[in-house]
Amino acid sequence: MGRVTERRKVIRIRDGAVSARPDTLVAEEPLEIRLNGKPLAITMRTPGDDFALAAGFLVSEGVLATDDDLQNIVYCAGATADGSNTYNVVDVRTAPHVTPPDITLERNVYTTSSCGLCGKASLDAVRTTARWPIADTPPVRVAPELLASLPDRLRAAQRVFDRTGGLHAAALFSEEGELLDVREDVGRHNAVDKLVGRALQSGDLPLSRAVLLVSGRASFELAQKAVMAGIPVLAAVSAPSSLAVDLAAETGLTLVGFLRGTSMNVYAGEERVALRAGAAQG
């Protein structure tokens, strides 16, 4: 199993003084995801929670919905020429009742640690394949004050970030503000996949009463993952993309961006944010 962090020599320059010292870096290694023995995708990730990452990825792809859909996940031995196990290849076996996705052209998707999807075709696909339509879930109401408190709580839970400064994080909170789970990864989408995959393995999908907080921007891909997991509220400390806002508006997702201090922008689904009576709606 790969390590979450690694040490490298660095030349440090501070106020003209030069010194050599070891530095702690976040580890980044490729993970190949195979589905029932066939290569499906490769992502660059921080080792750890690999099975959850693979499961969460397949939730966002619409392949898995419950823990009953998942037969098992294993690391593939013999992934190298000498037959050793690199712990960088996992095979996800689905239950017999799961309809396999159409991989007629051997998809072999390569996803970088900051990748995203685009285009109206992708937006339409998410809207039509979501297992748990957010607009149909019981209403969730969160106060702006509660949302404002979440980034500091996420930052306090980032153990590896404190040592490396190079990781994204994603966290699930209850509508009352309880921290349910937090994951870190070099890729923000991987951190979300790890959360969703752990929820699937625990039988907790859909996450219809949860708030998802991400440490960076809210891309279309992160909005997609929230919708596919049935998460009604997505908050980000940075900006959303235009397509993420479009997807949120079309699916009923509440999307909050620039969540910093007591300030935030609500881009869609404002009915779930408990605004004070008489608040400006201009």
Automatic annotation (TrEMBL):
Keywords: Cytoplasm, Molybdenum cofactor biosynthesis, Transferase. One of its GO terms (biological process) is Mo-molybdopterin cofactor biosynthetic process. The active site is at residue 115. One of its GO terms (molecular function) is sulfurtransferase activity. InterPro entries: Cytidine_deaminase-like (IPR016193), FdhD (IPR003786). It is found in: Cytoplasm. It comes from the Bacteria. GO terms for cellular component: cytoplasm. Pfam families: FdhD-NarQ (PF02634). Belongs to the FdhD family. Required for formate dehydrogenase (FDH) activity. Acts as a sulfur carrier protein that transfers sulfur from IscS to the molybdenum cofactor prior to its insertion into FDH. This is Sulfur carrier protein FdhD. It comes from Streptomyces galbus. The lineage of its organism: Bacteria, Bacillati, Actinomycetota, Actinomycetes, Kitasatosporales.
